Sequence to fold (295 residues):
Amino acid sequence: MTRTLVISVDRDDDLGKKAGIRGPVVGRKEVLTAALRLGIADPEESDTNAILGALHLHDQLKEQAEGTDEVDVAVLTGDERVGVRSDRAISQQLEEVIEKFQPDRGMLVTDGAEDESILPLLQSRLHIDHVQKIIVRQSKGIEGTYYYLTKAIEDEKWRARLLVPLSVVLILLGLGMILPNGGVIIGMMPLLIGIYLMAKGLGAEQHLNHIMRDMRENADAAMGSSLLWAFTIFFSIFALAEGWRVYGVAMDSYPGALELVLLVLQGALAWIVLAFLAFALSLLVLRWKRGTFSG
Fold:
């Protein structure tokens, strides 16, 4: 006999905020009721589609079940303050469901990357065989595009991701056009975009969230680490200022491009090293206080 648990995760607890339903929600009838209540409360909520997708997968597996195989469906809810608090709530609810149903495997149905980020937590407690993403078919045409862009801007989760990078680019472009010798500022745009894309590609946001969580959990370490971060910022500013000064002086003698770069790096090297050491020490302080420092 194989027991399969179909899971839908509402990490930011829209089910609780909008429909007044606390997780975990277990069983086909209860999950269907939750989906209907959430859909009525907010017809535009994408979590409704994810829950219905979980029900659809549950019914498919139920039809394909053989002999004494059992299939159940559950919705796990987090907290509107997405992060440690929501993940802890999801973990507790998952353990509660596992204790009752005793599943052999699980399948996750999600509506996007935010809920998918909880996958490692689920896998640490249950073998996940399959992950299914529910993507709603969007209406075609300019009106539909305008509508979804507007909704994305109004959504707190997407507002910062969309507007902040765009606003930085526009500010730099405007300053480059207004200020004399603004070509340097305009040239910073591809540099900043490249840094942003590289940070996203390397998962810097997740590492930063991990560091911030450690700082919240270790007050003493947070104070020392914050102070070292402040030194890192100051040293970085001094490095930029010194590099700019050396650049201005060196330009008078018109050196080659490679020589100019080396001169700028040489001038700012001391501040760069200090900034790196301060940043490294801030991370070591957190690890030491957390008890994971291994030398």
